[in-house]
Every structure is written in structure tokens, then in C-alpha cells.
Design brief:
Blueprint: E1 13-16, E2 23-26, E3 30-36, E4 42-49, E5 52-57, E6 73-74, E7 78-82, E8 87-91, E9 102-110
Parallel strand pairs: 2-9, 7-9
Antiparallel strand pairs: 1-5, 1-6, 3-4, 4-5, 7-8
Length: 118
């Protein structure tokens, strides 16, 4: 699949699980979670980058197996992050000629590291 993008099944690919109007907390880390089937095969990877949630689906979309993807944005075109004093965006480009949805989320606050107990 990595060598030839044409090998990806229809509906497989990147989903943003954030929706317009969602709020986010900026975690200064990268979180990754494999999603496996009953045979322990990896079907998808859930990941979070600085508070933005995504799923990379490696098979055709089946919302009975992955109901959390019902409202997800398939291959988002732009993610707008609204801060109290500024606005930033991430723009993505996709082959295929389809129009891809934009979404806007509201930044809440950065996560501060917990003080270590001595």
C-alpha cells in the first residue's frame, strides 16, 4: 500500500475524528494506538498530534466495526485552529479530484506538565 497508492481500497485512508466546533487541549506529544481485529491484524492506527485526533484506516470503511468514524472527516481539506488571539490552519492536498471538507476547531489551553514528586 505504501509503494502504490492505487492499492488502497476505497474508503481506506486518513480520517480526522475532530468535528467543526470541537474544542481541543494541546498535548505536547504524539500518541499512537493500533486498532486490531480478532486475529490481531492491524486494521487502523489512531493517532493524536498536539490535540488533533486522526485515524489512518487500512481497509474499506465499515462503520459497524468502527462506529466512531461515522462523523469523521475523510481526507480533510483544511483544519482551522482558532486561538483567542490568532488563527492557524493546516491545508492538505489529495489526488482524486474530489472536494474535501474543511473543519474549524477551538483551541482551549495547552497541557502543562505535572510537577514531579520528589
Amino acid at each position: 500500500m505504501l509503494d502504490d497508492p492505487r492499492q488502497w481500497p476505497d474508503g481506506a485512508g486518513l480520517y480526522c475524528i475532530m468535528n467543526t466546533g470541537d474544542t481541543t487541549v494541546n498535548h505536547p506529544r504524539f500518541q499512537l494506538q493500533p486498532l486490531t481485529n480478532d486475529q490481531d491484524d492491524i486494521e487502523a492506527l489512531a493517532f493524536n498530534i498536539l490535540g488533533l485526533g486522526f485515524v489512518l484506516l487500512l481497509e474499506p470503511l465499515d462503520t459497524s466495526k468502527h462506529p466512531f468514524l461515522r462523523e469523521a472527516k475523510y481526507r480533510p481539506g483544511r483544519i482551522v485552529i482558532s486561538y483567542p488571539t490568532s488563527t492557524n490552519w493546516i491545508t492538505m492536498s489529495w489526488d482524486g479530484g474530489k472536494v474535501h471538507e474543511h473543519l474549524t476547531i477551538q483551541f482551549v489551553q495547552p497541557v502543562r506538565p505535572r510537577p514531579s514528586s520528589a
